[in-house]
Each structure stands twice: as C-alpha cells, then as structure tokens.
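Why do we bother with holo predictions? Because pocket geometry can differ from the apo form. Keep that in mind while you read this record for pyridoxal-5'-phosphate.
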Amino acid sequence: MHKFPELSERHSDPTTFPPGVAFMDGQYLPISEAKISVLDNGLLHSDATYDVVHVWKGAFFRLDDHLNRFFGGVEKLHMSIPYNSAQIAEILHNCVALSGLQNAYVEFICTRGTSPTFSRDPRNSVNRFIAFAIPFGSVANPGQMERGLHASITDIVRISPQSVDPTVKNYHWLDLVMGLYLAYDRGAETAILVDNNGNIAEGPGFNVFTVKDGAISTPDHGVLMGITRQTVIEICAAMKISCVKRAISPDELRTADEVFITSTAGGVMPVTKIDETPIGSGLVGSLTTQITKSYWQMHEQGESRTAIRYPANAS
Ligand code: PLP
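The structure, written out:
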C-alpha cells in the first residue's frame, strides 16, 4: 500500500507557499495573498481552463502559442474575460518581473467564477481571470533526468474526449491523481494512463513519446495538444527524424527502444523503466538526449523567446 510521508516531512502550515506574484481582480499580490471565493465554480466543479508557460533565463518560451491555446479554451467553454491577448501577455510579464524570477512557472486561469444567487446556470456566473508566477518546476527531478523516470502503465482510462475536450487544458485531474497513487503503490515514480481504446494516452501533466528503430511516435487521441509535444514534432522535422501521431499500445511502449515524456514543467524527460521492464538498454537513449539538447538550445533562439524587462533593482 501507499505509504504516507512521515508527518514531519509533510507541510504542517497550510499558509506557507513558494515565493511568487499573482494577479487577480486587477491587482498584483504576493502569492500568499491570492485567494478565490469558496463559491467559485472553478473550485466547486473544476469549471475552468488554464495554461502554463515557462520563463527560462529571463524569457518566456513560446508565449504566443500558450496564449492562443488559452483563448481557444476560453471560447470553447463559453467564457469571457475583460483582457485581450496583448493585455494578458503584459499581466504575465508583470507577474514575472515583479517576482524577479529568472526561471518561472507561469500559470493563467479562467474560472467560471461566481453568481450572486448561486445560480446553477453557468451563463449567470461572472468569469474570473487569475495569473501567477512561481519558481520553475519539473515533473522529473535532476536525478530522474539523469537516470530516467520509472513509470507505471495504469489501467485507469483518461477521461474520454467525448466527455471533456482534451484540447481545452482543464482541471479534470482525478484520473491522473489516482494514477499517481497506483504508480506509487507499484514502486514507480509516475503514471501513464490509457485512452478509451486501451492505447497509451498521457500522464499527470505530460505527453508520451516512443522511439523504435529510429522513428518516433506519440498518441494523437484523447490527449492535450502539448506545446512541448509540438516543439518535439518540430525538432524531429528539423532533424529529419520521422515523428508520427498515432495509436500506441501499452506493449509497444514496453518494447520501445526509448521512451520520453514532454511538459512545459521540465521539457523533454526520459523514461527508462516501465513497471518491471527496462526500456531498451535501460539507460537514457541517444535520440532522447539529442532532442532534449535541441529543446534547450531553442530557448536561446530569438523567435521562441519573449524577454522579461525586470525592474532595475530585481535580482
Ligand atoms: N497533458 C496534460 C494532461 C497536461 O496537463 C500537460 C501540461 O500540463 C501536458 C500534457 C503537456 O503540455 P505542455 O507541453 O503544453 O505543457
């Protein structure tokens, strides 16, 4: 069974947070002061969409792509916010600049919000926009980046695309969180969920890729169209490596030469063991290493970067 961390290892003070700056209701606030109403439908019904962009060495990476995905979600969920894309870009920029963070995890959210009568009709709610910047975080820690993650393929089915449009980045995460507990019970470090056809879907905050005989594949059904996934597809095109979006069975993943996962939170991250099976040689594969290198090199290139103008006295 899953072992709970010792009490001393767990947070005992629910009011402590990482450093950072938030924006809500027209104001910039220390992250510890950014709070939403308990009546917000974003909290009560996971009725929200969001996006996460990262800042690396003082610049956003692919900011426009994240803004476009976010506005796509807002529109599909019949939400509206009083800011356009340029204004949100400025708000995100200000959160990072005020935080002074050079490497940041920047989340922006539209919740359904609240209604003065607690109406059940979602059209009666006033939508709420929130943004925050906190220190950059990764799915894989430095040790896992070096030796590769140990994942478990769970039999938990990722919420169906017929139920919730996975191209709208959303907080329907109970399947992913239960997947993590199952993975921990099995001695693994993260979980991979299957889709409603029994093929590989995605995991808690990441897309999945396989490498077999020099060709790369990634699922195309029932998954978020990750921006890191798209970046890897573009890197493969530039490197003249075949990269196909298609159904991948759990067995194909277990017998792949290499497996890696992708997320804004960490970039390209190797997986070297699935359940009890080492992947390929059991070491981080050479294509995974090359793609990871290209991914971080892209962060130095002008077209993907939006530089932050920090206040003169910021660290
Ligand atoms: N899949 C899910 C369910 C996610 O939540 C995320 C990111 O949080 C991803 C995939 C990866 O998407 P991106 O590369 O845009 O961060």
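The two ends are 45 Å apart (CA to CA).
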